[in-house]
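Section: Multi-chain targets

For targets with more than one molecule, the full set of components is provided together so that the structure can be written out for the assembly as a whole rather than chain by chain. Components appear in the order listed by the source. The example entry contains two components.
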Amino acid sequence: MPLYNGKAFAQEGLLQVAQHCAQAALHAPQLIGKTDIKMQIVAGDELKHYFRVQDAGNKLGARFGGESYKVAYNMGQPPVLLLIGADVTPIVEAPCKAACPASIDVPRYIRLIGDGQYDQAVAVIREKVPFPSICAYVCHAPCEARCRRGTLRDTPIAIEALKRFAVDHAGKMDFGKPAGEATSKRVAVIGSGPAGLTAAYYLRKVCGHGVTIFEALSKPGGMMRFGIPEYRLPREILDKEIGAVKALGVEIKLNSKQESLDELFQQGYDAVFVSVGAHHDTPLDATGQDLPGVMECLSFLRHVNLGKKSDVGTKVAVIGGGNAALDAARTALRLGAKEVTILYRRSRADMPAYSDNVEQALREGVKIEFQTAVSTIKSENHGLHMECVRTKPGPADVDGLSLPEPVEGSEFAMTVETVIVATGQSPDVPTEFGLPLGKEGKIRVDPDTLATEKEGVFAGGDAVTGPASVIEAIAAGRKAASCIDQYLGGLGIIDEVLAPPEQVPQLSPAQEALEQAAGDPDRPQIKCLPVEEALAGFDKVDHGLSEHEALLETTRCLKCDQVGFDCGACGFKTCREAVINCQNRLNETGGEPWGWLMKGPSCVWRALELGISMDWAAAAAHRLNVESRVGMIPATAFMRMGYMEGCTLVTVLPLGPCKERWYFFPGTGIEAFRPAEMERKGQILQYPPLWVRFTGPGRDIGRRGVNVKDRWWEPPYTRLEIVEDDAWGDSVLDRDYAIFAAADEVRKKKKWRRLNLPKIKEILDRKKSH
Amino acid sequence: MMNAALTAPSIGGSPMTEGEIVYGEEEQEQIARKMEELAYENEVWQHIFLYEAVMARQADTILLLGNTRAYSTPWNGECGLCAGRPDCSFVYENREQKAGIIDTTDRRSDTLVKGPLCTVYAHQLGYNVGSALMVAVHLYVDARPFISIGLGAQKLGYCRNSAVVIGIAINARAKCEPSDPGTDYHLVNLDSAIDAIRGNVNQLGIRPATGKEYRPGDPAKKK
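Its structure, encoded as tokens over all components, is:
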């Protein structure tokens, strides 16, 4: 086999060069350390996508370069393109936002609370979750675990308490308008838990499909109603937020256990979302499970949450260490138990229950016996005799958790009246559904689309992941709604803009509160009901923050979403102003770079930092004697096609398969511009021609200006022409739409996130002069 | 490094980079003092400017690189990277200008940098800085780019045609301070630590070599 046959070796080698360049870019020195460089390689036939967008734009006067790419491609020697880019807006992704499964913009709503805009803060939360109040009461706050103030050895911001404060103090806001145009598609959702309700909300409100939820129980809410006790989630809040989903036109059929998916399709539903949750208790690995007085945790909680009477006696043992175990223990105390003991076979550090829940339980008098396992339960006189043993950590299982081993000679006994088994939950998916199940009865789905192997059936939430948090179920519901909409022919875009454009206040209420405060505020202590009052009923236990506490707490936020240099280089006096402006523009456009090559505003330092990386990649190619030329305009076409998702500034480094100086020079792909041809004609370019553009709206030149009508590399190089400003603007807008439409075709083919073309057209048309 | 910076890839092929090399105790001291003066203008950057001023003093040489077009002649590439429409109007609207020609004589500013700047040209300056740093790496010389040094130098009149300037501190010492600064580096740094030890030694009258004689003794005598 020849070492180099003119094509194969060159391509293989170039891919390696591209990787080498990518490594160099990653190792480039940082300037501010707040720019996440992203890279992607485009090679071979993928270039054809670019040519389509290039043609669509250039026909209408765009200046997408890279003709030489096409010439080389047609010659059978396509270049390899290395796309290098980053998000260079003033908005830096904060760790709290990154940690949220639903990507709620935490710094933004904290900022709005500090500005006294509680309604707007709730609107920001609602942009990502349809149940802000439920989320504020029961979320386990993964954001707080990642809060940078916490990781810097201070206490994290009380994000959850701030969210709760916002929803408690916001006025009445109407978010419940369904989509403008209803489709004729119908979706059946099985299960009315957080995943099902979320999917139904977006499918109905944003996508416009008809949605029916089938709930097996007598009330909607799933685990939020039957698993979480009322003292953690007041029922009026749950009812109010479920009522908002119903008000959109979502039908909820109660006491409707579904046995067959095929029947639903026969009834005319076009897609089905299975979100049946994980309502099956895992049996105890000990004898005596079936004795009277031994209860399954979820059955017990469901019984109590339905308002039925339950007598647990005075002495109760709960086996397990999850949130369900804690909830069962605290509920037992409220039902009259005097002594409640939780037996957990591992240590506190391994306990899956939220630390907040554990603290509250200990405060209320629940005893927890760590590293204790139960081997036998026997019925004895008027109680249950439990044989227990202390444990020690053993070898790790597949999940990395140590398997407890009994400690010899540590056996002891306990006598109680009731034992509640809370050793885990698993999904209980009817076999009639015919869905392939995985470990512990979880439904197997495609992780990218949540589609099951059955056509038109999607699944999400606890039924797929096993028991998880409410916010994770909400995130699954969002993803399912997007995927189902795409399956039904929609764009799969479910993002909403609900908060109005943000204003920059002169002096925010939070700043005023800070000025009056005696010193730097500490994380506030949440006030709770006295234990006696808490145990007397099912009233909510913690009171939340006062307004003064909440305002002060917002001032502790380190504002990790801002570059934080306040230099003024971007044109705004502070990074805060820049972030607000940027957010308002992203909201206005739905995040699409409509009418622009790229998105702004930008932080110049982040753009500069990206430039350093780009240069290192180019230098790496240069060092290897590989022909390259940094380009910017072609990269914008790739951005529109869905490459480099999340980047606002992308540059392209084409790596040429042959060492010819002319290779990537603009226009040299055109036959007449080939060096040999030009030399023959005596037209070798001595100097780069001048590219002049003096016009554009916003300049102080009245309504008329000077414009270059043609691309500068096409002779004559500068043809100046007087044009009307407005006419120039309109043609640009038409051209931009053509580019978007061509790019969307590529996205469709690649099954990537689609562009919201109707919205883009609407915005572009609105900008036209007429 | 300067040659590499000036021959870095260029957006549009237009010349737009200027650079200066600053060395010498007095010159670097001036820049460092200017940085310290700027430090107290805003709490946000105070700490950074203070410890980086020490690095400006400690550097063996400072390379300054600026972009001459970011302020006065934006790219005109319909990019939309700044906060306005895709026609550079955000830059023009925030400047005194006639027929698209920006009046650069108005140098008043109530911010550290007189913005808005053309983002693409700031990005371009990244290419120049990157090329200079690449050469430093090849020469096994420690170098790190600083916004603060560039700004301090710019206020003193270095790279006077540029709106955005980056200072690269170049160090040939064994320990590269800028790459791993300690907390409160403007107070506790290598120089001040050595001085403090010297001061203590002089004040307390302690001899530099203290403790037991490190040699175990004459082996011959031991025998």
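The CA atoms of residues 32 and 56 of chain B lie 6 Å apart.
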